[in-house]
Amino acid sequence: MPTPSMEDYIEQIYLLIENKGYARVSDIAEALAVHPSSVTKMVQKLDRDSYLIYEKYRGLILTSKGKKIGRRLVERHDLLEKFLHIIGVKEENIYEDVEGIEHHLSWNSIDRIGDLVQYFEADSKRVKELELLHLNSEEEVSDKEPI
After folding, report:
1. At what angle do helices 64-86 and 91-101 cross, to 10 degrees?
2. Which domains does the chain have, with CATH numbers?
């Protein structure tokens, strides 16, 4: 099982390949805001662990194992963004919140969050009811006198 740091690299490599058709060390370094030398070390480790095939100066490709995990990591990220949006987290906080929690949840928890997202997406009235609950709780807080 990859470490959280490895997951970040695999996810980013997967996204770059999906969007650009390739992933270069410089692209990965820029996307993750790290030095190219750090990327090279991690890419070599991911190669040793069979997540990708890396040839110096020629680039890299994800193995089937790397693609499978990369796809799952992107799906996890997207699911958590959806979930936070549904429960009313402010848009400007969602990305950072997902980055902060995605490595700390078990796959079982992710699957249950997926069930909850499906529940809300199955009937738009459910989302509206949740939004009303959120608005009512905000009003209650603002109606209370300061301590």
Report:
1. 140
2. 4-69 (1.10.10.10), 74-143 (1.10.60.10)
